[in-house]
Amino acid sequence: MPERAGWLLLEPGSLLRWAHHALTPRRDRDERPAAALHGALGAILHGLEEVRPAYVLVAWDSAPPTWRHEAWPLYGADREPDPPELADQQVRLAAVLARLEWPQLTIDGYAARDLLATLAASLAAEPVAILSADRDLCGLVGDNVTLWTPRPQHLRRFDPAAVVERYGVPPERFAERSEEHT
Question: How far is residue 24's CA from residue 7's CA, in Å, rounded to a whole number?
Fold first, then answer.
């Protein structure tokens, strides 16, 4: 049975990166890489089916540097840069989402997950579902906030009990658990 959240907050950039690494490479009819695009769109369609939101909002990462880079100069230094074929797929995904006329939010100096955290906190009086491949967002999960993460062919739902079951800590202590494992 669908969740029926008031809001579905999307982080398409993380969905693209997840799909690029998790799914078998494929190309479109013009021979352009398309696996990440197809995977992200598939996850979004699953999210719409599972959540049945009244409203959808899309959050995108700002170009670096963000406030995290300024606070911690080595932030993200150990991460590999996105492969070049993701840039074209991101442009195409953004075009699809723009045609759906969902509000899209980018704020200079902020990552999408920071925007999602702020939005989830400000909307916490009503049901909010977040669709992102970033499991660090488990720390936002609460009575009215669920996190949906992509898997091939389906999504995984994190409510407070699922966070405890999977990670051994409640959502409000998730950041502590993450720090212990870095």
Answer: 31
